[in-house]
Automatic annotation (TrEMBL):
Superkingdom of this protein's organism: Eukaryota
InterPro entries: Rieske_2Fe-2S, Rieske_2Fe-2S_sf, Sol_Rieske_ferrdox_dom
Name of the encoding gene: RFESD
Gene3D superfamilies: Rieske [2Fe-2S] iron-sulphur domain
Required cofactor names: [2Fe-2S] cluster
Taxonomic lineage from the root: Eukaryota, Metazoa, Chordata, Craniata, Vertebrata
Keywords: 2Fe-2S, Iron, Iron-sulfur, Metal-binding
Residue ranges annotated for the Rieske domain, each copy included: 31-145
Species of the source: Felis catus
Name of the molecule in the record: Rieske domain-containing protein
Amino acid sequence: MLLPGEESCLSTLSMDLDGSEQDPEVKEYSPVCVGREDDIKKSKRMTAVVHDREVVIFYHKGEYHAMDIRCYHSGGPLHLGEIEEFDGRPCIVCPWHKYKITLATGEGLYQSINPRDPSAKPEWCSKGVKQRIHTVTVDNGNIYVTLSKEPFKCDSDFYATGDFKVIQSSF
């Protein structure tokens, strides 16, 4: 049984947004419908499997963000974390070890202080991009996620691919 709105979402799983069939070689980079806009706006987050990769989608302050569901540090469940602002940037805080990851870029943030300066105040610094970020688009009330095409390795890839992947492929 389909929920209202799912029929349009399901029909796009094997087709591109323009209605043409997907080339199997390009399938991993094609947008996948993961749900309805109304649903994510109510829940503020949702999880999905996109081309055999687990992702979490957040709706925060009018913007959509998607990233690998497992924290880059130790595989913690980011979909269970809280969103907080650090240095003016919204971040998901991993519930396991409190690592802070920016929603927009996937950067890991930490506080640093100069130990030789007793009057120094802690500053927020970036560890660089640690969590793979994916593209979210909205079309006709449907939410689509397109996996990142960035060629660099992200630390979160460790938990999203290979032996440590939570969802194992049926191939």
